[in-house]
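Request: How about a record?
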Amino acid sequence: MTELILVTGSTGFIGSRMVETLVRQEGCRVRILLRPESKGLLSSSAGEGVEEFRAGYSDAAALGRAVDGVTSIIHLAGVTKAVDEAGFIEGNVMPVENLLEAVKRNNPNLNRFLLVSSLAAVGPASEPFPGVSESRPSRPVSAYGRSKLLGEQAALRYAGEVPVTIVRPPAVYGPGDRDILEVFAMMNKGYLLSAGSGKRQRFSMIHVDDLIDGILLALRSEAGAGETWFITSPCGYGWDEVIDAARPALGFSSLLRINLPKPLVFGLGMVLGAIASLTGKPALINRDKARELVQDYWVCSPEKAKKELGFIAKTTLNEGIASTLKWYQQKGWL
């Protein structure tokens, strides 16, 4: 019997790629959960294997119908920007709780509920190698990270009744992503702005296709219920490595490096955060986001996923950045 997988967050960068992979490469049927106001996804290249279902996360009856009959759920939906902590809770915790309550009531034989969380739920490492492991106590440094951790804790409260698996990616990049696009747009103009110690900072990254491979391995792992894995690159990278990988496609010979000192970053965050509170619109940076930006080591260890899932990211940094930049250029984004 063909799997019927419910995917949330299907209109986003990772979600749209996930739906396409499930339908075109995995041969699955996919039900996408869309908010009532969403524009939908049926025009995408995923084709006829996609079924739309519209429901608000506070609508228990509609959520019950959405989860009814599916074999697995991949929960990708969430928010990365909000005006305040309450906004992050509403976007990253409440949907997890309500979806799992719907599963408990309407689909008690679900094979797997897979929650895509974030490295931010754990917080940064204290050293660049090997990075944080799944066994390290969580110490998030931002409201976003705290909300992702609360989402994980909400999911695990149902683990005795629903087979729950959690994966935590670090920074995700690839064709279609608009967050890392901002970094390459700066490089394309001849400069790179970073917060804190740009020379010391290292960070894990994962290409979107590798992340999807890891998610599907975790989803189908017989021993995966109740488990948590980082799905990440084999090591952390520094800015110099990212610059070298981008140079051939962008064609710059030199780059102006601007490292904003921490006090300035926090000052900008305080001002822009105050403006956001007045306007009701999320700021590009606030004091909370500043705490994330100035950390030295956003690095997580790949070892558990390698040992237990056999997952190793296939895309090298050079290959991944080259293909991503080519896509941006073809689409006119750069």
Observations:
- The longest helix spans residues 262-279.
- The radius of gyration is 20 Å.
- Residues 4-177+204-237+299-316 form a domain with the Rossmann fold fold (CATH 3.40.50.720).
- Residues 167 and 229 are 5 Å apart (CA to CA).
